[in-house]
Amino acid sequence: MKYLITFILIIILKSTLMAFEIKTEVVINATPEQVWSIFNQFEDYPNWNPFIKSIKGSVTVDEKIIVRIEPPGAKGMTFKPRVLTNVKNLELSWLGHLLLPGLFDGLHKFELIDNRNGTATFIQSEQFKGILVPLFKKQLKNNTKNGFIEMNNKLKELAESM
């Protein structure tokens, strides 16, 4: 019994150390429909998005897409996540893996909340899990989070100028 408890504690500790989440949000003085009309035009990303440079492919549930990110102060990266949700004016999410599942997985989510007062809250988050997460935690806290914030702010600027 003593060994079982020790084993369970080690598993819990390891899973905590191997997980990390970034969550950013911004209130935008525009309706969710107005924000989504900009956010959903992936072919325009190279023209305005400072973080996600491109999204290619069919952005439908269970399909793989090709995403290119360029976090500020870090090397760019292209990966092929699987789309988990795509609900117009509400949410888009995908799950990506570095090489193999379990090494470094990222569940990226974009959410739009209608504040019912002519504004919308745009939430961008990502849950990272896997044995390599501790190695990248500093870069995630700085570069990746800054990329989220820059993208959120640019989306806000564009939506509010409509």
Structural commentary:
The protein is α+β, with helices and mostly antiparallel strands. The protein has one domain (20-160): Alpha-D-Glucose-1,6-Bisphosphate, Chain A, domain 4, CATH 3.30.530.20. Helices cover 35% and strands 34% of the residues. It has helices at residues 2-17, 32-39, 45-48, 133-160, and strands at 19-28, 52-56, 66-69, 77-79, 82-87, 91-97, 105-114, 120-129. Strand 6 and strand 7 form a beta hairpin. The radius of gyration is 17 Å and the shape is globular. The model has no long low-confidence stretch (mean pLDDT 91).
List the helices and strands and how they pair.
Blueprint: H1 2-17, E1 19-28, H2 32-39, H3 45-48, E2 52-56, E3 66-69, E4 77-79, E5 82-87, E6 91-97, E7 105-114, E8 120-129, H4 133-160
Antiparallel strand pairs: 1-8, 2-3, 3-4, 5-6, 6-7, 7-8
Helix pairs in contact: 2-4
Task: Give a short synopsis of this structure.
The chain is of the alpha+beta class and 162 residues long. It is built from 4 helices and 8 strands. Helix content is 35%, strand content 34%.
Low-confidence stretches are none
Fraction in helix: 25-40%
What is the helix tally? 4
Q: List the strand order in the largest sheet.
A: 1-8-7-6-5
Question: Count the strands?
Answer: 8
Radius of gyration: 17 Å
What is the CATH architecture assignment? 2-Layer Sandwich
Question: How would you characterize the largest beta sheet?
Answer: 5 strands, antiparallel
| Class from helix and strand fractions | alpha+beta
The H-level CATH homologous superfamily, spelled out, is START domain
The sequence of SSEs as H and E is HEHHEEEEEEEH
Please state the average pLDDT score. Answer: 91
CATH class: Alpha Beta
